Amino acid sequence: MFNFDEARFLKIQAGAVHLAPRIDQEIGAAIAAGASNLFFLGTGGVAYLMEPAVQLLHRRSGFPVYKDYPAELVLTGSANLTAKSIVVMPSLSGTTKESVAMLAKLQEVGARIITLVGHADTPLGQGGTPALVNFAEDDTSSESFYIQSLLVALSVLKARGEIDNYDALVAELATAPAALVAAKKAFEPKAEEFARIIAGSDYHMFTGAGNMWPEALYYATCILEEMQWIRTRPVHASDFFHGPLELIEPGVSLILFRGEDACDPLAERVVQFARQYTDKLTVISTADYCPKSLSPELRALLSPAIMATLMERLSAHLEVMRDHPLVTRRYYKRVAY
């Protein structure tokens, strides 16, 4: 595959899967000790990567789960954030400014803080109780964080007796790194074609439903806007028919991410409408590339990670095609803000 280190990728994703026992131990112990709720507190793109886990718990668990912006929460506090809260704080660098500020507040409150980081010798790597470390870089971190947050959600369900096949799912997750590579290989012959679609316009609308929406939002904002300086308009498929549909006309690029969860009918509704009014509808579906060896349940749960791994292949071609490396920035970590 083009510009891809398979051994490095497999090592990083396996590292995420191997955190399962530690995550389960920490979540189980916290809930057994009387934890009252769970907060996912990420900043920027990594917060989007937590959203499928938040969705899963909102829909399958009675345990109170919250997602908030650390930059706001550090200013306002929350009546629900207490010493009985479990807080999951992801940060690849371990140095994210807003999250580091939030860490100090959480320590004052006395919450149980689980940090998910890529580097141990950092403020968040030192400040977690515990800090769970799995080294990754930008091109491998999305899948890793999707897997880790899924493990958090599954452990909550297990601890509360809300799932009966935790062990089977976690055992099957051991095959996920290889399945992700297989998906990449299946997508590779079309990656350049899809990259040309992105490169062919300076504006794209992105949409998705269910656990595909966070990945659509992430790819539009954190890859195309941040790393390629391409303007995008992300919109949830549930909101598409409440305003944004009026932007659709010939020549407008609409890119739809489709997964395999229960919300896919919302994506199909967008397809049926948009194909009538724009000649630039692009649909990318995980079902076309994900190995059939995975169970239907795990395919649905892993759809965001699968889409992320496909988009890494697209991006590898896109940065070369546009002569714009993904590491190029105008402002990020270059100027004060």
Automatic annotation (TrEMBL):
One of its GO terms (biological process) is protein N-linked glycosylation. It comes from the Bacteria. PROSITE patterns: SIS. The keyword Isomerase applies. The keyword Glycoprotein does not apply. Keywords: Aminotransferase, Isomerase, Transferase. PANTHER family: FRUCTOSELYSINE 6-PHOSPHATE DEGLYCASE, GLUCOSAMINE--FRUCTOSE-6-PHOSPHATE AMINOTRANSFERASE, ISOMERIZING. The lineage of its organism: Bacteria, Pseudomonadati, Pseudomonadota, Alphaproteobacteria, Rhodobacterales. One of its GO terms (molecular function) is carbohydrate derivative binding. This is Sugar isomerase. Pfam families: SIS (PF01380). Residues 27-167 form the SIS domain.
